Amino acid sequence: MERVQLGVSEIDQPMLGGLPRGSLILVIGPPGAGKSILSKLFLYKGAQDDETPILLSTSEEESTIRETFRLFNWASSVEGRLVLIDCYSWRAGKPRTKFSASLTSLTEVSLAISGALESIKGNGRFVLDSFSDFVKYAGIDRSIRFLDSARTKLKQNGVTGMILLEEGMHAPRTVTSVEYSTDGTIRMRFAENGRYMMVSRMVATPVMPKWIPFVIGK
Asked: Is 158 a residue whose pLDDT tops 70?
């Protein structure tokens, strides 16, 4: 099975070189654990490998997203290539980007994803940050049906994806449902001595469920 690098060698190496291509991976952890930064590193590594980065953002506006890429010196690979699906600005009634949608209409979001995938013609990486907002605005049952549809679209296009979920906000049933609709789970946490990551499940991949320290640098 072909692999794509996550971007953290401490995780990529035990996973036979990275995430299975075409898989959709859940990243779960508390606020501040590093989920958003990890997802942007994932997109940056894809851009370095000539894969188009697609980011569906519910929690950050475009200027903040691009500033983060610049802060970590990743902008040179991402600028001009990032396809942004804006699911943030609708709350403030701001002008929309080419691909944008309101979380009150999952059909609108689904069409935006289809348009983004059509624009890249395959060979891309996808991040949804954060699925917690989908659950908040649309409810768990509708959100899971949406996720199943999005997963199928990504797989058909050979796009490797990552969705982020806030730990502590959802009932155990919600987390279990999201795990059932994804191909793997990366858990994250932080402590006084740093950040840690654990791969608790991954399709077609041997995993050792233990916490591994990691640092994402510039």
From this structure: yes
